[in-house]
Amino acid sequence: MQKLSLHIDFTEYDSIDELDPADKALIEKASDALLQAYAPYSNFKVGAAILLDNGEIILGNNQENAAYPTGLCAERVALFFAGANYPATKIKTIAVSARSGKFMIKDVLTPCGGCRQAIAEYEVKQQSPIRIIMTSEKGKVLVAESIDALLPLKFYSHNFGTPSGK
Questions:
Q1: Are 109 and 98 in contact (CB under 8 A)?
Q2: DSSP single-letter state for residue 35
Q3: In a structure prediction context, what are the per-residue pLDDT tens digits for the chain, which is 166 residues long?
Q4: Residues in CB range of 3: below 8 A, 6 or more apart
Q5: How far apart are the C-alpha atoms of 92 and 54, rounded to whole Å?
Q6: Fewest C-beta in 10 Å: which of 28, 33, 105, 165?
Q7: What b/e readout covers 58-92, taking b as 16+ CB neighbours within 10 angstroms?
């Protein structure tokens, strides 16, 4: 037996004003996207903005449904749109912003487990990391250089091994 430990790195900023202009603009686009979210049940609106390596920016927002859990998170809306419409284009960065009509979001919002797994899948597919920029209503910003910081023991196709007999 051996004890193992993990080390993860984030960069923390006190506000979006500390970000470089491109990252600040991406967060602002995510914040704009959340205004169009369909969240009549939770009143918790999330926006995502994805920067592709061709310079295109893809927006997504959460889409709820009375038949929970058939809605979809903002991150996956944007990821799946990018994958469907730009299948050969790499995702460089995803920015996520949220607002609640019921409470103040004090801590930095991070993607849910399902979104983390979807981001991991796209990293594997494109064989390169995806930066993740996350914000809070209080102003703090966290930047992760890869999904590995949020999902260090991810489930991905390499876990499947090789088919038997090969």
A1: yes
A2: T
A3: 999 998 899 999 999 999 999 999 999 999 999 999 999 999 999 999 999 999 999 999 999 999 988 899 999 999 999 999 999 999 999 999 999 989 988 899 999 999 999 999 999 999 999 999 999 888 899 999 999 999 988 777 766 665 554 5
A4: none
A5: 9
A6: 165
A7: bbbbbbbeeeeeebbbbbbbbbeebbeebeebbbb
Q: Are strands 131-135 and 91-100 parallel, antiparallel or unpaired?
A: parallel
d(CA 111, CA 114): 8
Please report, for the chain, the start and end positions of each structural domain, with discontinuous segments joined by +.
21-150
Scanning 55-163, the segments in alpha helix (DSSP H) are 74-85, 113-126
Alpha-carbon distance 152 to 64, whole Å?
29
* 21-150 topology per CATH: Cytidine Deaminase; domain 2 (3.40.140)
CA quadruple 34, 19, 79, 110: dihedral positive or negative? negative
Residues labelled catalytic: 75
